[in-house]
User: What shape does this take?
Amino acid sequence: MKTCVAAFVNQKGGVAKTTSVGNVGAGLAKRGRNVLLVDLDPQGNLSESFGLNPDLLEKTMHDSLIGGVPLKSVLIGVSERLDLVPANTHLAGAESELLSLPEKNTRLKKLLGRLSGYDYILIDCPPSLGQLTVNALMSAHRVYIPVQTEFFALKGLQKLVQTIEVAKERGNRGIVKKVFATLHDGRIGICRDVLDQLKAHFGKDEMFETVVRKNISLVEATASGKSIFDYKPACHGAADYHRLAEEILKEETI
Assistant: This one.
């Protein structure tokens, strides 16, 4: 199987996007896949979730994306079969810096294309649809959209879908999108209603069956700098991300 590049995107913050990137990546690595995580968010939350201090990093995603430093010299091994390209606030300037650079929309794609040995590359995008996210979409074979089952869940998704269509028009015609529900509490009526709306709108072809339930252990794992599988493998947060990783594996063999 050739490398699958997947961008996790939602311009709405607080939808468990970073949590999902880290735990899906860890889940795939535990199943024997070689995985690279790319922190493309200037907040550096993905880097922090693996115990790194973004302020102390010598090289980050900014050095590669803007300075052309090879990703191999930036990435850090965080566990067996799992590597990470970290980020910090320096990346915030990239939104404007990219505008004046040649091939501004495909710089990440070219950087990733020079890597080898990975089964999956998972990109944690910032909560916006700016130049960084455009670079991720131009690089990706898959777009995974985490959606919190709350009242405003569907608001803004239309703009995201339009941005994905722009990526197709600019040359990434094979890109495929898929939604999954996060932070779900089945005891609450509005959560059940929104989940039903998502299933009706996207259908089986564009939505994963896995529903990631709200689980305090997921928050605690992030704070401890560990994946949910290393922090509390018996909790239902681990079970949900186990199922999501399995669905992603099955999807790539169809």
Observations:
- The mean pLDDT is 94.
- The first helix runs from residue 17 to 30.
- Residues 50 and 226 are 6 Å apart (CA to CA).
- The beta strands are 4-8, 35-39, 76-79, 82-85, 120-124, 142-148, 176-184, 207-213.
